[in-house]
Amino acid sequence: MSEKIATRDVYGQTLVELGRENNKIVVLDADLSGSTKTKLFSKEFPERFFNAGIAEANMTGMAAGLAAGGMIPFASTFAVFAAGRAFEQIRQSIAYPGMNVKIVATHGGITVGEDGGSHQSVEDLAIMRSLPKMTVLCPADGPETGAAIRAAAAYEGPVYVRLGRGKVPVVFDQDCDFTIGKGVTLRDGSDLTFIGTGLMTAEALKAAEILAEENISARVVHIGTIKPLDIDLVLKAARETGAVVTAEEHSVIGGLGGAVCEALAEGFPVPVERVGLRDEFGQSGTADELLSHYGLTAAHLVEAAERILARK
Amino acid sequence: MLTDQQIRELEETARHLRVEVLKMLHTSQSGHTGGSLSAIDVMTVLYYQRMRHNPSNPAWEDRDRFVLSKGHAAPALYACLAGCDYFPREDLKTLRRLGSHLQGHPDMNKTPGVDVCTGSLGQGISQAVGLAMAARLGSRPSRVYTLLGDGEVQEGQVWEAAMSAAHYGLGNLCAIVDQNGLQIDGATEDVMNVGPLGPKFLAFNWHVLEVDGHDIQAINRAFDEAEAETERPTAIIARTVKGKGVSFFEHKASYHGVAPSDDELERALAALSLR
After folding, report:
1. Residue from the list A26, A58, A65 with its beta carbon closest to the beta carbon of B131
2. What pTM, to 2 d.p., does this model score?
3. pLDDT tens, residue by residue, B110-149
4. Cβ contacts (< 8 Å) between B123 and chain A: which residues?
5. With respect to CATH, is domain A184-311 assigned 3.20.20.70?
6. Span A4-169: which CATH code?
7. Distances from the Cα of B56 to the Cαs of B132, B153, B208, in angstroms?
8. Which domain, by its residues, includes B251?
9. pLDDT digits (tens, 9 = 90+) for A63-116
10. Which of A192, B173, B207, B237 gives the lowest tally of CB atoms within 10 Å of its CB?
11. Domain with CATH 3.40.50.920 in chain A
12. First to last CA, chain A
């Protein structure tokens, strides 16, 4: 896991590849094409790129209209603006009709960094997960992002994809697959299960290594699809290991932790520790400082594992 | 230019559609009377004279599109669609009933002939912009029409959409504002005066026309002029009367979302069929 790649960079490159393969792919942005990396697409396919300017609500509606006209739109901006400012437009014009629109939000979570709490989305997964018909993806790394974007393009219906800003460790092989609705067991284990999403999956793998030195066997499951959740895989892990620690760069309310707890409460209740932001907004700082400050590191996951083993 | 005979026929159609709207709302006892009646004449000209559409093939790719941005006027749209044989007239009785394909606001997945879901104000025009972009990308001859309320244009998104339509030079887009001057809380100019509308669209680089929204010939002529303009989107500010066609509904904000009672239906039908 020494190599690091930014998921947004892979997004931009994958869009260009998709654009070459399918002339129905169109891309929209709201004056952030340099940051979301959709600029790569705009340079090669200017006629299929629409900059909406600083007007996310209209961008969302235009994307819906383009889909109604038979195109496959990818609409991009930062996660706070996509899921926040344009929420009702996504609800009414995309989710309710089930439009074939892909909303790809970059700069998710607190690793946006120095821009501070106003620009750090800690609630977008919860918001999008609550929308009927919406599929919600949160890939772990660069390679999985490429596969997830391809899966989203091939899928018929609304999809929200959450990406980050900074470079994150590579977990998956370059030619990995992505199946919407399926989680992946990255490491087997019997004492407890880490369930991670986004960049926290890499931290879970590191935490499992640390625990192995203490002769604690931790399973690591990666959930790249927050919705629909791979309930079978989650229940299997709960049955076989008897304890679950969730890990997400997001509020513990309503995102991965919320989804896992709902599934376990209905299917196979076991002790759960949710690692994430605890009902709080972020603040300015470097990405690494913020991850450490808000308890989102391998060391924090090890502590959570020790707490849960005591409860088991 | 429509002949006198064509005008008479369209006026007769509009009268029938008003009757359908009133009966539909009376049966459902729920829905928006005033804004459906004010929009009927513009929609009659669109569905029965201007738009290229094929009720036996609602998904025909090259069809013109209609986006009812003021989605609460759904009864007017359903009357037009049933009148054009998209579905049986009998279905109109199911408006707003559980399990009906005629939802309180237009639903593309339930009603044949409805092109997009609308109802949350200000969003339809953005979708119309996207549809116009898609038609151009596909080199299709489709024209896209969207009907907005004059209260609806208080939504900021309308002006975001207006900006984008002009920026992208969407000559195949025509927005009509049903300017009946009333919204739920009262007169539009009292609630939030967004006027003057024509100059606002003009300032956003639209081609702007103002017409009497109940004058069939004038409405049709405006659509001729809109079609002749290929570089800019066209806004038609249609001056209308809320509740048009039924004297005791006219000019009353209180009939925005109220269905006719038994007595009101009887009087309204009598008035409409006498004309």
Report:
1. A65
2. 0.96
3. 999 999 999 999 999 999 999 999 999 999 999 999 999 9
4. 57, 61, 89, 92-93
5. no
6. 3.40.50.970
7. 23, 34, 34
8. 4-271
9. 999 999 999 999 999 999 999 999 999 999 999 999 999 999 999 999 999 999
10. B207
11. 184-311
12. 31
